[in-house]
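Session log. Operator J.P. requested a structure for one protein chain; no other inputs attached. Running the standard single-chain path with token output.
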Amino acid sequence: MKSIFLLIIFSLLFLPFFGCKQNNGISKEKLASSKNSIEYAKGLEIYKHRGFSIVKITNPWPEAKKSFTYILQEKNGIIPDSLRQFPTISIPIHSIVVTSTTHIPALELLGVENTLMGFPNTNYISSVKTRKLIDAGKVREVGTNESLNTEVLMDMKPDVIIGFGLNNSNPTLDNLQKSGLKVLFNGDWTEQSPLGKAEWIKFFGALYGLDSKANTLFSMIEKGYNTTLALAKKATSKPTVLSGAMYQEQWYVPQGESWASLFLKDAQSNYLWANTKGTGSLVLPFEVILDKAKNADFWIAPGNYSSLKQMSDSNPHYGQFASFKNKKVYSYAVTKGVKGGIIYFEWSPARPDWVLKDLITIFHPELLPQHKLFFFTKLE
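Structure written below.
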């Protein structure tokens, strides 16, 4: 009898211990040793576990001093107690509001564009698939990024809202969170490497429980980019390149560590400001640009101009450049959606392989004789 009594006491004492262990689901040590599945993106980390994923946004805006952690919980997934402090999203999600056109390609590539419920100023969206949804009234206007319409969003009740911040002050998104809506920061725009931007498709794949599909899509893009990169190395010359244009009496050129500059480097060109430090734009007077780039072989991305005449009408001094005289000016501003949105802004982050093929076709046409330019157009 005594032994039975002791057995019962033993069971009662240790029941909370075993129950707690089951609720925790996974030890802190195992959480700490888990592997990040992201390779190129610097501001995104995804850790897969049985029943849930941990998503970390480590660089939501340039020089950010804070990061964001989200827990994506699968059906019946057990979240460890140590992670309950972070926002939890049940996956797969079935409805979404996004706030940047760069998010649209990921939805379309994953085949989940039908889940898009709202967007700030839908005229910015150019992609044909999503425009059909907008025209059918299936995607609602939700204000502007600076002032999202809280009432409309509360009425819509999307599973998640994907926002972005320019700095530490994001009152609109903060208010949405306080209203009980699930808001996730997306930092794809802060990435500087071409493949780093494209890898953010895995962020959306994780939300929809489509990790495998997102991985397959990214692997295709990665292979296409690296194959094209290897082809570019066969080039026997490196033409000199000018970029940017005048704006309010100053010329803006991409800095040497920027996303745009890295494309020009990978395309085996000699971008004239490739050795400058920084990831933004370098602001220089016209005279400095003319002195260095007057004889440049090519001029890439001259602002939003769509013809040489438009350029010369805006600034007659553009005619002093050899690239202008020789009609070797290529712009991404010509290819637009039906509402005037520039396709390059929407799709180039998701498809760097297409951008690289375009640039190699421009600089080294003998390497890709069959490629038809997708983003860029030669100005006439």
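Operator note: Residues 2-24 form the longest helix (23 residues).
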